[in-house]
Design goal:
seven-stranded mixed beta sheet, 16% strand, 314 residues, binds S-adenosylmethionine
Length: 314
């Protein structure tokens, strides 16, 4: 399985959902829903909060961001593994797991990097509060499971909706990886301490050598530093002050692991939806070149672990 195959899974899933709709009224609702969700997602570029519970957010996110984020996480894992050993059986907790890009990336990374004769597994606890996002994750991960099973990689996935439940119920869980990929919103200052303390509690579930991986927006040199960037700086300092140490990793700006920066396969679903908008007299959804999905690493990546000599209270 390669990235193109997985892009095809997204295309088939979304096209399948669309063609199942029996009349044009429902089809127009689907297309307008994707239009609204895509416009809402643009708030991310301005460093704002997005309402992920909007209808059709799962579809809009899967088309535009799922593979971009999976590619970013894949690159981050590759960079970490050159400085720090990752196991062939990974137990992962993915906070704000969205449409399941973390599961895609870890499953694919294991298949591509670990000796084919070794049995690999990823056991994922995805914590996601938005139903449209987690429903899409369920569908995409089902396909992923079927497709990579024959590469000796087993994918198990559990969906949870609440971080506190994950902390309480997985009390004795020991994880290899805790992932936060573009998870954090802009928080009121009085909420930040609570969020940081929860993140610390989650990192305390890591086994010795386990990794906490944070992917987050980059400070934009033209705009003023956004609250999300400031929060990430504060959070990383807080985790370090509690004893975690950074894993040195290098990631080239604009790097991508797949073959082409502009995805031909995902573009197909955008063009299909646009043609349906035209047929039904609706405004087209993907208008400008940058409305179509593309790859590249433009964010920031922090990876932290617990030093071997530190006694932790779990
Ligand atoms: C920008 S998306 C990132 C999704 C995924 N991690 C990725 O990189 O593709 C952020 C997601 O985090 C979820 N989220 C944020 N805070 C959360 C929380 N405290 N509990 C559950 N989900 C959360 C949102 O609903 C949204 O789906």
């Amino acid at each position: 399985m390669n990235w193109g195959d997985f892009e095809q899974v997204i295309v088939s899933e979304i096209q399948g959902r669309y063609v199942k709709l029996s009349d044009d009224l429902q089809k127009a609702d689907f297309l307008s829903g994707i239009y609204r969700a895509k416009s809402e997602m643009l708030k991310l570029n301005a460093g704002g909060n997005v309402d992920y519970c909007l209808p059709y957010m799962g579809e809009a996110y899967a088309i535009y961001y799922h593979m971009l984020r999976a590619d970013n996480i894949f690159l981050a894992l590759s960079a970490i593994s050159s400085a720090h050993q990752l196991p062939a059986r990974i137990k992962l907790i993915d906070i704000g797991s969205g449409t399941g890009s973390g599961t895609t990336a870890v499953g694919y990374w294991l298949g591509a990097n670990v000796d084919p004769s070794i049995r690999k597994s990823v056991e994922v606890y995805g914590v996601e509060r938005s139903e449209p996002m987690s429903k899409m994750a369920g569908s995409l991960i089902r396909h992923l499971r079927q497709r990579i099973r024959n590469t000796q990689t087993n994918v198990l996935h559990y969906q949870l909706s609440n971080t506190q439940i994950a902390i309480d119920r997985l009390r004795n869980g020991i994880f290899d990886l805790v992932l936060f990929s573009y998870t954090f919103d802009v928080y009121e200052s009085d909420k930040q301490a609570e969020v940081m303390s929860r993140v610390l509690q989650l990192t305390q579930k890591l086994r010795q050598n386990g990794v906490a991986l944070f992917l987050s927006p980059n400070p934009n040199p033209i705009k003023t530093v956004s609250p999300k960037v400031e929060f990430m700086d504060t959070l990383i300092s807080y985790l370090k002050s509690n004893g975690m140490k950074p894993i040195p990793i290098k990631l080239r700006r604009s790097a991508f692991a797949c073959d082409e920066k502009r995805s031909v396969v995902l573009r197909r679903i955008c063009e299909f939806l646009n043609s349906e908008c035209q047929r039904l007299g609706l405004p087209i959804i993907y208008e400008k070149q940058d409305d179509f999905p593309w790859y590249g690493f433009y964010g920031r990546c922090n990876a932290l672990t617990w030093p071997a000599n530190l006694t932790r209270v779990v």
